[in-house]
Write a structure and sequence with these properties.
It is a single chain. By secondary structure, this protein is α+β, with helices and mostly antiparallel strands. Helix content is 30%, strand content 16%. It has eleven helices and 13 strands. The strands form three sheets. Strands 2, 3, 4, 5, 6, 7, 10 and 12 form an eight-stranded antiparallel beta sheet that branches. The protein has a three-stranded antiparallel beta sheet with strand order 9-8-11, with no helix packed on it. Strands 1-13 form a two-stranded antiparallel ribbon. A hairpin with a 2-residue loop joins β4 and β5. α2 crosses α4 and α3 (104-110) runs parallel beside α5.
Length: 393
C-alpha cells in the first residue's frame, strides 16, 4: 500500500542545544517510519537563545538517545574552586566512539563518501556508538547485515544485489532502505507462514465489531474523525486510513479500549512504517502504480469489508490477488503494485500492517532497526519537523 515515512538521511542536523523548548528533553523512544529523501534543512535566523551549558546539553542528549529517565535534581553544590575541563559524558562519548569505530558498524560509517567531511551526517556518525551502548553483547558477525544497511543508506550509489537489479518488477532505483543478505523474495508470500495471519483470520468477527465500534465512537457528538489521507496520492486515490499506530507506536488519546483484540494482535509483530490501521478504498478508485523502497518490511492486509464478488484487487509485480473477508494477503512492496475497487457502490476496508520481516531478519536485527528508527524520529523532532513523512515510498 501507499505508505509515507520520515527520512533517515538528513541534509542537516541540529545540535541538542537547538532543540525547541516545547519538546521534552527525554521522550519514550519507539519504532519509527523508514528511510526516504533528505529532510529539509532548518537554516536561517530566529531569535538568539541564551547560551546553555554544554555539559547539561550533552547529558540530556545521552538520556534521550539511551532512553533513560530524567535524573532527579541534585541540590548539593560542588565546592567552589573545583575546575572540570571535560565532563564524564564527553569522555564516555569518546570512549564509545573509539571502541565502536573499530567494529563493523563503525567501518560501515567510515565507508561513507562524506565521512570526515563537513557534509557528514552527525546522526550516523553517532549511531555505531549508540548501538554499542544499547546492545553491548552484539558481535560483529551478528551486526553484518545492519552494517550493510548503513553502507547503502550513506552511499546510495552502492550496487544492490543481483536478485533485485535483474528483477524487472522491482524498481531498484526507488530503493532507499536496503539490507543485504535477506534471501529470496516473491510478490506474494504464504500467509500461513505467520501466526499473525492465522490469528487475524481466526478473529475476523471480533475485529470487524471493533472496527464498527471505532466508527461509532467517531460519530458521537464531539467525536474525532480519525481517518487520514497521509499522502496526496492516497487522498486523490480515494484511500483513507483509520490510524491505530503511527511510526510504529501507539497514538496518545486513541481509544484502544474499543479495539483490544485488534490492538493486541497487531502488537504481536514488530510494526514498521508510517501508519497501520484500517484502510478504506472508495468505489471505482485505486492506488496508482508505485513501489515502496524498503526491503526489510512485509505487508499484511486482511479483508474486513469486501465488495460482493470480491470486486477489489491488488496487483503486486506480475501477480494479481483479490481481497476476501477474513483472509490475509502477505506481500513484498519492493515490487511495483497497484490497487483498484471495481465496485460501483461498495467501499473496500482492509486491516493494514507493515512489519519487519520476521521470516528473514533476526530478533537482534529487528530490535536494532527499531532503535535506529526511534532515534531518527527523535532527532527529526529536535530539528523542528512538525509533520514528517512528505515523501512517498
Amino acid at each position: 500500500g501507499a505508505v509515507t515515512v520520515f527520512p533517515l538521511v538528513a541534509d542537516s542536523f541540529v545540535h541538542t542545544s537547538h532543540v525547541p523548548s516545547h519538546l521534552p528533553t527525554t521522550t519514550a523512544l519507539a519504532a519509527g517510519g523508514g528511510f526516504g529523501a533528505a529532510a529539509s534543512s532548518s537554516k536561517g535566523g530566529g531569535k538568539k537563545k541564551k547560551k546553555t551549558s554544554t555539559r547539561k546539553t550533552k547529558g540530556n542528549l545521552l538520556q534521550t538517545l539511551n532512553d533513560e529517565p530524567k535524573a532527579k535534581a541534585n541540590k548539593s553544590k560542588k565546592p567552589r574552586g573545583t575546575t572540570y575541563n571535560r565532563s564524564e559524558q564527553d569522555l564516555l562519548l569518546e570512549e564509545l566512539a573509539e571502541a565502536s569505530s573499530k567494529g563493523v558498524l563503525g567501518q560501515a560509517v567510515a565507508c561513507s563518501p562524506t565521512h570526515g567531511t563537513p557534509e557528514a551526517d552527525p546522526f550516523w556518525e553517532l549511531v555505531p556508538s549508540l548501538i554499542a551502548s544499547k546492545f553491548p553483547s552484539a558481535t560483529d558477525k551478528q551486526l553484518e547485515r545492519v552494517a550493510s544497511m548503513i553502507r547503502h543508506t550513506l552511499d546510495p550509489n552502492l550496487p544492490l544485489e543481483d536478485s533485485i537489479i535483474n528483477d524487472e518488477w522491482r524498481p531498484h532505483d526507488e530503493i532507499h532502505a536496503y539490507m543485504d543478505g535477506l534471501g529470496s523474495t516473491k510478490p506474494f508470500w504464504d500467509p500461513q507462514q505467520l501466526e499473525l495471519c492465522q490469528r487475524l483470520s481466526e478473529n475476523i468477527d471480533v475485529i470487524s465489531k471493533e472496527y464498527e465500534a471505532l466508527l461509532e465512537d467517531m460519530n458521537q457528538p464531539g467525536g474525532k474523525d480519525r481517518f487520514q489521507s497521509v499522502t496526496s496520492m492516497n487522498y486523490e486515490a480515494g484511500w483513507r486510513t483509520l490510524v491505530l499506530f503511527y511510526n510504529g507506536h501507539r497514538i496518545d488519546g486513541f481509544p484502544y479500549h474499543l479495539a483490544p483484540v485488534t490492538t493486541e494482535i497487531m502488537e504481536s509483530v514488530p510494526i514498521a512504517g508510517r501508519i497501520a490501521g484500517f484502510n478504506r478504498q472508495q468505489p471505482q478508485t485505486g492506488i496508482p502504480l508505485h513501489s515502496d523502497g524498503n526491503n526489510m518490511w512485509l505487508t499484511c492486509q486482511m479483508g474486513i469489508k469486501v465488495p460482493k464478488n470480491n470486486a477489489a484487487y491488488i496487483r503486486v509485480g506480475p501477480e494479481t490477488q483479490r481481497w476476501a473477508r477474513g483472509e490475509c494477503l502477505l506481500y513484498d512492496t519492493t515490487y511495483e503494485h497497484e490497487t483498484f475497487n471495481e465496485s460501483e457502490d461498495e467501499e473496500r476496508v482492509v486491516l493494514h500492517i507493515d512489519f519487519f520481516n520476521t521470516l528473514r531478519m533476526t530478533a537482534l536485527e529487528i530490535a536494532i532497526m527499531q532503535y535506529i528508527y526511534a532515534l531518527r524520529e527523535e532527532f527529526m523532532k529536535a530539528e523542528g519537523v512538525a509533520k514528517v513523512g512528505a515523501q512517498v515510498l
